[in-house]
Amino acid sequence: MPPETCQDHRSRIAIGIDIGGTTFTVCAVERDGVRITDTTGPTPATDDPDDMVAGLAAAAAHLVTAVAQTHAAPVDGIGIGVPGTVSADGGTVVDCPNLTVLNGLAVPALMSERFGVPAFINNDAYCAALGELRYGAGRGHPNVLVVTLGTGVGGGVAIDNRVLRGPRGILGEIGHIIIDPDGPPCSCGANGCLEALVGKDAIIRRACEGLRQNPQSRLAEAPDAITPRLIAELAAQGDEYCRQIVDWIGECVGLALADAIVLCDPDVVLIGGGIAGAGEMLLEAIRHSVGRHSRISGFDPSNVIACGLGAGAGAVGAAALVFECDGAPA
Ligand SMILES: [Zn+2]
User: 182 CA distance to ligand 1 centroid (A)?
Assistant: First the structure.
């Protein structure tokens, strides 16, 4: 529930902006989660903060106009998700490693200034978890663990119907649970984190390295075109080597989940992100791993399910920041 101090608890329509390293998604959402309209585009490739803010504002303005036309109603606020950390007061971007132009920017204040409505910001994984909790596959489950498998591996935890981020903003960062201390280096500086093993690039690297021993795999036909999606598609078509890779991804994710489950005791675990597009085969591999490794929790592996909002979870969750007055209003 929104805090009592929230001044905008009657807000009906919000815009959510999910800023990724290469693309962004903007959507207009009603309080009940109905998506009015959305759009995606390339994240402005610029080192100039003014250009970046102008690009985001232009995308938001497009939707403000659309809402005015279709609903004859104003937008009540703007929420923004960024691929990095934000200050504890929710006013400033602290560190976005893949989008450093945002670092130090008071994005909520800048957007609020332009549009004359409250603006809020949070980490993209937090937003995705909030979106799933309120409007996605987490709806009706107060305790939810969300894992996003993509270029990086993100996560979010909701306990008692609220997404938690912790005092340093790292709560739920399942991508940095260490699976293999002797494993490959991770972007965080440690070795063998889940992300270092099953992040997109790591999967592609592993698949390439194993091709010599598996020349019969159809992956060998186009070694430069290997993607997690292709691996998943070929696995579904019966390619044994690809099947082994999917099983291995599932094993790693399940190992991390076994740790996470005993720490946050979720009702459901939601798997999303681009690599989750591998579909039921990957989910099944994850469930199998969870079943083998998570003994004490009594967690039913069938409660590992797919996210409900797809790639739009981050933007919908960013909009939900407005409805919850989540963060410091600018
Ligand atoms: Zn790490």
Answer: 13
**56-82: per-residue pLDDT in tens?**
999 899 898 888 888 878 889 999 999
330 falls within a domain: no
Rounded to the nearest whole angstrom, what is the distance from the C-alpha of residue 195 to the centroid of ligand 1?
A: 6
The Å distance, Cα 198 to ligand 1 centre, comes to 11
In which domain, by residue range, is 190 found? 140-308
- Both 262 and 188 in one domain: the answer is yes
Question: 174 CA to middle of ligand 1, Å?
Answer: 9
Pairing of strands 23-30, 13-19: antiparallel
Q: How far is the CA of 194 from the centre of ligand 1 (A)?
A: 7
* The pLDDT value given to residue 9: 54
Q: Which residues contact 284 (CB under 8 A, 6 or more apart)?
A: 250
- Judge if pTM exceeds 0.70: yes
Is 220 within a domain?
yes
Same domain assignment for residues 160 and 77: no
* 320 or 11: which leads in pLDDT: 320
Tally of domains within the chain? 2
